[in-house]
Every structure is written in C-alpha cells, then in structure tokens.
Amino acid sequence: MTNPNYKTPLRVSVSSWALHPLLNRAYPGRPGDPDGTMFENKGDAPLTLLEVPAHLAKLGIHTMELCHFHLPSRDDSYLAEFQEALKSVDVELWSLLIDEGDLVHPEHHARDFEWVKEWVDTATALGAKHARIIAGKQPPTPQNLALSRDALSHLADYVEGSGLRLFTENWFALLPTAEVLNPFLESLEGRIGLCFDFGNWSGDSKYEELTKIAHLAESCHAKCFFGENAVPNRDDFLRCIEITRHADFSGPYTLVAADAGDVWGTIAVQRDLLLSTF
Fold first, then answer.
1. What SS3 class is residue 73?
2. What is the dotted CATH code of the domain comprising 11-277?
3. Is the whole model's pTM more than 0.70, yes or no?
C-alpha cells in the first residue's frame, strides 16, 4: 500500500547522473572493492559537485538527487560543505541514489547489506529526504523475493525515526514486471516506497506495465531519450508523464538523462516539457 499522506508539490528535479558528462568522475566505493569505481574517469571535469546546486537554481530547479558515486568524500567536513552549497541556493536533496549492492546476491548478500546500510547512514548525514536502494539483481524466485523483503524490512527498521524514507525502483532482475513488483511492495506494507522510472522497462508492454505500478510511485525518474542532434523523444516522455498524472502522482519529476553535447540545454528542454503538462 502507499502512504496517502505522503504528497509533495509538483516540481522538477535533476539527478547528478544527468550531469555525469560534466561531473565526469565516479569516485571509489563498491561492495567488496573499496577502491573500485563504477565508471572510468575520462578527461577533465568541467563541473564539481559543490557547483551543482547553484547551476540548478539558475534554471529555476530547486530539487536534486545524488548518485552515490558522485560524492567525492564522506568526511563530515565535505558533507557539511555540500549541505551548505544546497542551503545557500535553497535546493533540496530529495534522494541519495545508492547505485550498487545486491541484497539477494547468492554469496555476498550479507556483505552488500552492510555496504548499503553504510550508505543509508551517509544519506542521513547529508540531510537527504530519501535513499533509493536496489531491491536485487537476481531473478524473482520466491527465495530471492523473501531475502530482499527481509533486508529492506531491516533497513526500514534501521531508519525509523530518522526522517529518512527508503525507496526501491522498478529496476534490475528482481522486479521485472508489475506482476512481481506490486505484491512485493504491498507485502512491505508501505514501509518502502517506489521510485518510478520511465526508462527501466521497455518493449511492447512498457506503457501497460508502467500504468499498473504508477499508483505506488512516490518519486519519479523522468527519463527522456535523445536521438540524433539532441532531439528528445517527446512522444515517449509525455506519454509516461501522462501515466503518472492519471495516477495522481504529486512527487518530484527527476530528470536523469541529458545529451552530452548540450547538457544544460537538454535539461532545460525537459524542464519545459514537464512544466507544459502541469
């Protein structure tokens, strides 16, 4: 079930993933490989994370999400500096996106659980309102679903009273369809929310499947695909937005994609598309 009191004003948000071509860094930290990075660093970084809030504010965007691998340091001094950068331009850190870890890994689920838990602590220290956790990367067998449910329940217990709410997402092998995702989240009795992503599911049944889960959405990754010459796929983008509007979604729409050749310009295009539907 969803939390009927969990409603926020409609607004545009940006994920640091959309800014990856400018941030151009993935900082170390993976389960079992503390020095490993998710992506190879190539060339210079035109933008630092501390500069992001001010750039978003200039676009009239006052909400953002942060991929865990874009955080250069977890030292208290850096976390405080980033919080001040957010506060100075009135930008809210909506969610820390914990983009690694497999809670149902056949060998290392306990290790990954502890790793995710440490990043949940970081989300709290950052003052994030939420943290998004991968439910699992293995097939949705009864055993794997039970293992993930148990892990997410323990994490929900862990953050109770902290002000941090946890989400998972319609992403990876454990939650491949509405038929699996809906009863899984309902079994968690509203203790774990859903980050609804436009672009994680594809194929002929995409819109039907997204429609079936939209009523559970508390957060939204509004993924716009760009073709040649940075032309957005408006039809797909607007159709997915329409699905959320019919489901009375009222959380932030976080832009998670941009064309590398014109990052800020294509973010502005998506912002305007979104605002035209409000």
1. coil
2. 3.20.20.150
3. yes
